[in-house]
Design brief:
The structure is a homodimer of 201-residue chains. Chain A is α/β, with parallel strands linked by helices. Chain A has helices spanning 15-26, 35-43, 47-52, 63-70, 81-99, 109-112, 128-139, 146-165, 181-184, 186-197, and strands at 4-9, 29-31, 102-105, 119-125, 177-180. In chain A, helix 1 crosses helix 10 (186-197). The model of chain A has no long low-confidence stretch (mean pLDDT 89).
């Protein structure tokens, strides 16, 4: 049985919805934007900034920041607010994993928790057409073409992930399971993840 | 229900074994090295050469060959034996897919059959330790370090795949499902694949 399930997801793929279903099936806590509350509590930084810097790359390729984070990074001195939000989020994710029985969406949790052996790391993708339909249904049209909205958002997630992990978002060696939610269906994806989470090994 | 299941696999991950279990569960035909017989029949080229050039990159980045293959590529005139083997293999894979109800291991089948909508494309990976143990059990020690044997073989598969597809082997947008066989277990992987293959959508 895996204590922690991390779900990385392409924008529009339904990763959040799948994660909610998995959490329900397993009786686990669920953290997506819910993490923001925890980060506000942990850091004392105002909600406005925590929301602004959620999954936000503070620099495109900050080796220094990555070293600081990976060295423990409890000292907030001299760091920008964006960096402090990110460090607080990392600490929160580590605490939640320690408490166990949770599903965490995005935020590089697969990397942050890489030293634990009780995590199941999942990536959810889908083809452009499927994601476009879902995003248009949920958020409607804007002046920006839907394909650009999808690729821009994923590009930001990719840059955010790389900014502190030095790994590639979506590179399959980072995950135990990757599912195409368009081809497989959201409920089937959730069922497979819950089944794999329950395995002994 | 998917008619064709393609399984790409890291060396040592157990993709072949998983594929056999899936074929058995679904009552499908199974093609891994079995493809060699079919290619010998199709091409009239001797078994010796067909074996030699199985999953063998004829050139690292042959745009011309890729264009020839993707344009249909029935004319063998002026092509090397290696290229003729590869074209015959592509034709065989297309025929087998047309006959349906089969599991095909490797050989870029996911790319070759990309225009069909009745394929389930799977990638099997595992961590180095798991793969090393399996390969040592199956083939024993050699003078070459096991890590190098694993990475060299996968590098050859990567180059082979790129040589005619111009896509990246193991890039997750090419697959519907990726499973870590070390974390999930071979039998569980086979069960998940068979389950997904049976879905309506």
């Amino acid at each position: 049985m895996k204590n922690v399930i991390t779900i990385s997801r392409e924008f529009g793929s339904g990763g959040r919805t799948i994660g909610k279903m998995v959490a329900e099936a397993l009786g686990y806590k669920f953290y997506d934007s819910e993490l923001i509350n925890e980060v506000v509590k942990e850091s004392g930084i105002s909600r406005e900034f925590v929301e602004k810097y959620d999954e936000y790359a503070t620099h495109k390729n900050s080796i220094l920041f990555s070293i600081a984070v990976n060295a423990g990074g409890d000292g907030y001195n001299g760091l920008s607010i964006a960096n402090r939000v990110q460090i607080a989020q990392i600490n929160v994710i580590k605490q939640l994993a320690e408490e166990g029985n949770c599903v965490i969406i995005g935020r590089g949790a697969d990397y942050i928790l890489r030293d634990r052996d009780d995590c199941l790391n999942v990536f959810i993708r889908a083809d452009m057409q499927f994601k476009a339909r879902r995003v248009l249904e949920a958020y409607g049209e804007t002046d920006v073409k839907i394909e650009k909205r999808l690729t821009d958002k994923d590009a930001r997630r990719r840059v955010f992930y790389r900014s502190f992990s030095m790994r590639e978002w979506g590179a399959l060696e980072n995950y135990h399971l990757m599912l195409d939610s368009g081809a497989i269906g959201l409920e089937n994806c959730a069922e497979i993840i819950a089944k794999v989470a329950k395995l002994d090994n």
